[in-house]
Design brief:
The complex is a heterodimer of chains A (353) and B (257). Chain A is of the alpha/beta class and 353 residues long. Helix content of chain A is 42%, strand content 19%. Chain A has 2 domains: 214 residues, Thiamin diphosphate (ThDP)-binding fold, Pyr/PP domains (Rossmann fold), CATH 3.40.50.970; 114 residues, Rossmann fold (3-Layer(aba) Sandwich). Chain B is globular and about 60 Å long. Classes of the chains: A alpha/beta (353), B alpha/beta (257). β9 of chain A pairs parallel with β2 of chain B.
């Protein structure tokens, strides 16, 4: 199946995961990501894996821990409230250094919120919603094709650094249908010498996050820290769109980045030179490119489907808050390109004054 | 004469126990290790230890082990068994872990008939945190969080989780035993053997509840605590086989073939 197929984002997460060698999927129903679990139920066992609908989000993430401990490629998925329930497990996955892929198809919140697309989980995803000192790579696809590519990539990244990886998406990306070409199925998965498989004739091993000796715990923390530094150094991904001649730079990810592109093309017709930096990795965040661009750019506009979360990372990157303007729509509202275009034009007018 | 008391192969040597004097965990650990050896399971075993007194079980069991978050032992075990059905998987959990914070995982893994074995240590208190009331605490039993004794109107009644689990069709073998005497120890070993064999035969879920003394938190001498297991605890939690569907499962398997 190297041909182009027409597929929803949620189904694409599933198909790409299976092709990447995902052997186990554990999940609990929650809208707007149910099609992902259903896709796995229909396809994973047929193709040599194991699908299980768990009794809870908590159970699902702990099943992920169990499967990951054996070295199997494993995925779980949920939407915002369910991801909150998984946070304890994410902290354990980071502590154990177990490769795993977690999909969050975000919806409006806080609380039960609603089932419309939102980007309110940025802080939770990028700052580590679970307890303790850890980081987790967070990938934000902007098209269904990118869902396929990044899902495939997430498993490799997880194995390479022995870390949980989150794919941060939203209800719109999950439901939208687009043409997609899948990468060919993974053939040689990396050998995992560390994985548990019964001691056989060798020495027994144990996996524990409990380190009662504070000095040993600190050592483990610094070891993780060095790994996180490596990820920050090597794995930053972003898309640069019409930034070469831009006076105004938009920063947006996922769904909002798609809308921002429409807005940019609109304002460019009126001669406003706007461009886009679309972070693909939210952690590690593309600080450097924004810092570099901010030297010549007059205005940086951040669009989010939240009250403003990623904008704090942009502030960290640039340092100069007066250069940054923010426009956000929380609560499950999907802004229109016209709305964004108006905001860009207004900021452009202010620059001329 | 064959030396009966040899060191179990899958019990680590030269380790100093962290368990309190008179605690039942040491005996239960040893029995599990002996059965792992006798059924030749140690090489392909993965044990799941809980949060609680047995969080350090991997210091003693000389098989591959993984720690679980509080209450999540059977979810972790499910993940392992689903990824590697060829491995022998057991979880080792206490009463707070298995029947309070992990109730959902306990019930649902049992209801799915997951093919692993649960070793459930019931000592009627939270041990590691210092003797708080557990779901299994007896009526009128004094703990640090039921200082006047467990009051059913306020605290509910002792939870018979293994009896509950035994009613589920997916549970092939469930037995309650007590570490209260040499005879009790022998019966406990027999129960563990039967439960492990149930998994080896691929028949389904098995669980052994072990009533176990906790002299420190019961504030009793070792001897009194063993007596308490047999004279008081067993009044509430009667020992015996709670369900045994092995014959039926074996028959079903044959018919399938």
């Amino acid at each position: 199946m190297t041909n182009k197929v027409f597929m929803s984002g949620n189904h694409t997460f599933g198909e790409a995961a299976i092709r990447a060698g995902c052997k186990c999927y554990f999940g609990y129903p929650i809208t707007p990501q149910n099609e992902l679990g259903e896709y796995m139920a229909a396809n994973l066992d047929k193709r040599g894996g194991s699908f299980l609908q768990s009794e809870s989000e908590t159970a699902a993430i702990n099943m992920v821990i169990g499967a990951a401990s054996t070295g199997a490629r494993v995925m779980t998925s949920s939407s915002s409230p369910g991801i909150s329930l998984k946070q304890e497990g994410l902290s354990f996955l980071a502590a154990f250094e177990f490769p795993s892929v977690i999909v969050n198809v975000m919806r409006g919140g806080p609380g039960l919120g609603n089932i419309a697309p939102a980007q309110g989980d940025y802080f939770q995803a990028t700052r580590g919603g679970g307890h303790g000192d850890y980081r987790m790579p967070v990938l934000a696809p902007g098209t269904v094709q990118e869902i396929a590519d990044l899902t495939y990539f997430a498993f490799d990244l997880a194995d390479q650094y022995r870390t949980p990886v989150m794919l941060l998406s939203d209800g719109m990306m999950g439901q939208i249908k687009e043409p997609v070409i899948f990468p060919s199925p993974a053939k040689n998965l990396p050998k995992k010498e560390w994985a548990l498989s019964g001691r056989g004739s060798g020495a027994s091993r144990y996996m524990a996050s409990l380190i009662l000796d504070s000095l040993e715990m600190e050592k483990h923390n610094w070891k993780l820290f060095r790994k996180f530094n490596e990820i920050e150094k090597n794995e930053v991904k972003y898309e640069s769109y019409k930034t070469e001649d831009a006076d105004i730079i938009i920063v947006a990810y996922g769904t909002t980045a798609r809308i921002a592109k429409g807005a940019i093309n609109r304002v460019r017709k009126d001669g406003v030179k706007a461009g886009l930096i679309r972070p693909i990795t939210l952690w590690p965040f593309p600080f450097d490119i924004l810092k570099t661009l901010s030297k010549r750019i007059k205005k940086i506009i951040v669009f989010e489907m939240s009250m403003g979360q990623m904008v704090e990372d942009v502030q960290l990157a640039i340092g100069d808050k007066s250069k940054i303007a923010f426009h956000g729509r929380p609560g499950g509202i999907i802004p229109t390109p016209i709305e964004f275009a108006r905001f860009i034009s207004r900021e452009n007018q202010k620059l001329k004054k | 004469m064959k030396l009966k008391n040899k060191w179990p192969k899958y019990y680590k040597k030269d380790v100093v126990t962290h368990y309190c004097p008179g605690c039942g965990h040491g005996i239960a650990h040893r029995l599990v290790a002996e059965v792992l050896e006798e059924l030749d399971l140690g090489k392909r075993a993965i044990g799941v230890n809980p949060a609680g007194c047995a969080v350090l079980a991997y210091n003693y069991f000389d098989v591959d082990m993984i720690e679980s978050a509080h209450g999540r032992g059977t979810a972790v075990a499910t993940g392992i068994k689903r990824a590697r059905p060829d491995l022998f998987v057991f979880s080792y959990q206490g009463d707070g872990d298995l029947s309070a914070i992990g109730t959902a995982e306990t019930i649902h893994s049992a209801n799915r008939g997951e093919g692993f074995t649960v070793i459930f240590i019931n000592n009627a208190v939270y041990g590691m945190t210092g003797g708080q009331m557990a779901p299994t605490t007896l009526l009128n039993q004094k703990t640090t969080t039921s200082p006047l004794g467990r009051n059913p109107k306020r605290d509910g009644h002792p939870l018979h989780i293994t009896d509950l689990v035994a009613t589920l069709p997916g549970v092939v073998y469930a037995e309650r035993v007590a570490l209260d005497s040499p005879a009790g120890v022998r019966k406990t070993k027999k129960a563990i053997t039967t439960a492990f064999q149930t998994q080896v035969d691929d028949l389904g879920y098995s669980i052994v509840e072990i009533l176990s003394p906790c002299p420190t938190n019961w504030k009793m001498s070792t001897l009194d605590s063993f007596k308490w297991v047999s004279e008081v605890m067993q009044q509430e939690f009667s020992v015996g086989v709670l369900t045994d569907k092995r014959k039926k499962e074996k028959k079903g398997k044959k018919e399938k073939k």
